[in-house]
Design a protein that fits this description.
Elements lengths: L3 H7 L4 H13 L3 E4 L3 E4 L7 H7 L3 E3 L8 H12 L5 E2 L10 H15 L13 H10 L12 E4 L1 H13 L5 E6 L3 H10 L2 E8 L2 E2 L1 H11 L3 E4 L13 H13 L4 E4 L23 E6 L11 E4 L5 H12 L4 H13 L1 H27 L5 E2 L7 E5 L6 H10 L2 E2 L1 E2 L11 E5 L4 H19 L2
The structure holds 4'-deoxy-4'-aminopyridoxal-5'-phosphate.
4'-deoxy-4'-aminopyridoxal-5'-phosphate binds next to helix 7.
Subunit structure: Homodimer.
Protein name: PLP-dependent aminotransferase family protein
GO molecular function: DNA binding; DNA-binding transcription factor activity; pyridoxal phosphate binding; transaminase activity
Length: 446
């Protein structure tokens, strides 16, 4: 793009107007800034979800168990992942490349903790871990006390406890479309009725949200505010403020899922919970995306009168999280290893993400659009509407490439899409994307 100065001179407008126009284009995901070199067009994103979803209607859905259910998808993808020689772009977790180093720390943690690790524990979780998490949360911008933290078995349990607490069978609940399919699985099980509000480049469409808050009086808003799964969108600061304002106005609590906390390549706004003065927001996160999903350590931040009933629900659910897992996470946090690990992880994720972006440029046909991630673990690809996504995923699997079918992330059907995890070796990325590109070309060529 022409420089701000030359553009303002050639069309004779104020420089500030051009700056504002460029910022709007950037917010819409159409261009990006490269420090020192100016603005560049995001060729791959221009036909992507951000534009189309602005015009997509909201969906009202009662989700039902079946082939597309979270249960079916989860179990079948675990089965597929265990096969030999699979390039697994479908997983929602980091690669196991740091497992040796984490194993050493795990051993050290168990030696240090002594006998306590063999005893039962408090339902809310170990105090030392809650204190360390409270300290860690200062960085993303949350000031909470250890009493306001509940350690959960992954953030999946946190989601489940909070959704059970806020929702009854038949209640309306707002989700973003697309959204995390594991949350849809819980809502299906609870018999909740889902309203899907389309994502825009700024976060969920607030005009539609307000309409539905007025007309349906939902009991909960579920949002993945930072590095949204699956689109990667981070809800902007203004949107966060406005979303909380609407929640308060219509007395509808927010469940803020920040599972990808700490995995941002660029600065992100503080969580919505940081703006919450009257306990409208329950915040959840996890160590699954930064350490190991198998540890099953997540947590929720619950304030005010909601805390005690949720601690009780946690007790009734599974007494408490494994003491072994809690001891390992405590050791990582207390020793400073976690901070260093996170910084290395971000660097390697960014490198792998760039390798995947280059491979996509090389092998994917022009008709496919994809996002340029600002962190997290995935990029989101958008296929032309006529492409049979299920057959494409099946063909990929027959060539040992596993991808997440985008259909899983829509409560009531969406556009054909794939979610691709970029946490892989450059060789696997190159090989896997080459295979996918060939399959896609076959479907696009008459
Ligand atoms: N929330 C989001 C947005 C997720 O993507 C996931 C995992 N894919 C979870 C929650 C659950 O993860 P875990 O239970 O392992 O913490």
């Amino acid at each position: 793009l022409p420089s701000i100065r030359s553009l303002s001179e050639s069309i004779q407008v104020n420089k500030l107007t051009v700056i504002e126009a460029y910022s709007l284009l950037e917010a819409d995901g159409l261009i990006h800034a490269r420090q020192g070199s100016g603005y560049f067009v995001n060729r791959t994103v221009t036909s992507g979800f951000t534009k189309r979803s602005n015009f997509a209607p909201a969906q009202e859905v009662i989700i039902s168990e079946g082939e597309g259910s979270f249960f079916h998808q989860y179990t079948s993808s675990i089965q597929a992942r265990r096969q030999q020689n699979i390039i697994d772009f479908s997983s929602g977790f980091p690669s196991a490349s740091s497992s040796n180093y984490l194993q050493k720390i795990a051993k050290r943690a168990l030696t240090k903790t002594g006998d306590n690790v063999f005893k039962e524990d408090f339902p809310q979780g170990q105090l030392v871990l809650r204190e360390l998490i409270a300290q860690m949360l200062v960085q993303p911008g949350l000031e909470v006390s250890p009493e306001e933290i509940i350690i959960t078995s992954g953030s999946q349990q946190a989601l489940s406890l909070a959704m059970q607490y806020y929702l009854q069978k038949g209640d309306w609940v707002i989700v973003e479309t697309p959204t995390y399919h594991g949350a849809l699985g819980i809502l299906e099980n609870l018999g909740a009725k889902v309203i899907g509000i389309p994502m825009t480049a700024e976060g969920m469409n607030l005009e539609l949200l307000e309409q539905y808050l007025k007309s349906h009086r939902p009991k909960l808003i579920y949002t993945i505010s930072t590095l949204h799964n699956p689109t990667g969108i981070t809800t902007s600061q203004e949107h966060r403020q406005a979303l909380l304002g609407l929640a308060q106005q219509y007395e509808c609590p927010i469940l803020e899922d920040n599972a990808y906390e700490g995995l941002n390549f660029e600065p992100v706004p503080a969580p919505i919970k940081a703006l919450d003065r009257d306990n409208w927001v329950t915040y959840i996160s996890t160590f699954s995306k930064t350490l190991m999903p198998g540890l099953r350590v997540g947590y929720m931040v619950v304030t005010g009168e909601h805390r005690q009933p949720l601690v009780k629900q946690k007790l009734l659910n599974d007494l408490h999280v494994s003491t072994v897992s809690q001891a390992i996470v405590s050791e990582l946090l207390a020793s400073g290893h976690y901070r260093r690990h996170l910084s290395r992880l971000r660097t390697s994720n960014l490198q792998n993400c760039n390798v995947m972006l280059q491979a996509l440029e090389r092998y994917f046909p022009d008709a496919i659009a994809w996002t340029i991630p600002k962190g997290g673990l995935f990029l989101w690809t958008h296929l032309p509407n006529h492409l049979p996504i299920q057959a494409i995923c099946r063909d990929a699997l027959s060539e040992h490439v596993l991808v997440a079918n985008g259909a899983a992330f829509f409560p009531g059907g969406g556009y054909p899409a794939m979610r691709l995890n970029f946490c892989h070796t450059p060789e696997d990325i190159e090989q896997g994307i080459k295979i996918l590109g060939r399959i896609l070309k076959n479907y696009l060529t008459p």
